[in-house]
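Exercise 7. Given the encoded structure of a 99-residue chain, write a plausible sequence.
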């Protein structure tokens, strides 16, 4: 049985995400690869106590990575969840209380 903390790995905080949060109340998380939209919605509602309106997921493809001269590899692929929450004002992920 997966817990909410097994599903949500970490929040993704970039300039683009912060702008989107201010406009559309959107939060972005890195989630477990086997998590589905329903599990992500329940996990966000349980951990942060927010009402979720919509969840979109996508798998971020691995990017090439170099380890010095002539040796190369790839970064790991990961799953991203874009969560739209119901709120009157923008939600600051750094100030949210974890339940």
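Solution.
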């Amino acid at each position: 049985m997966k817990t909410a903390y097994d599903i949500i790995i970490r929040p993704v905080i970039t300039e683009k995400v912060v702008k989107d949060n201010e406009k559309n109340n959107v939060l972005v998380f890195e989630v477990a690869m086997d998590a589905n939209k329903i599990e992500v919605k329940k996990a966000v509602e349980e951990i942060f106590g927010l009402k979720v309106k919509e969840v979109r997921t996508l798998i971020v493809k691995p990017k090439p990575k170099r380890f010095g001269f002539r040796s190369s590899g790839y970064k790991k692929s990961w799953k991203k969840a874009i969560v739209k929450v119901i709120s009157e004002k923008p939600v600051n992920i750094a100030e949210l209380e974890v339940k």
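Remark. The CA atoms of residues 20 and 69 lie 39 Å apart. Students should compare their own answers with the one above.
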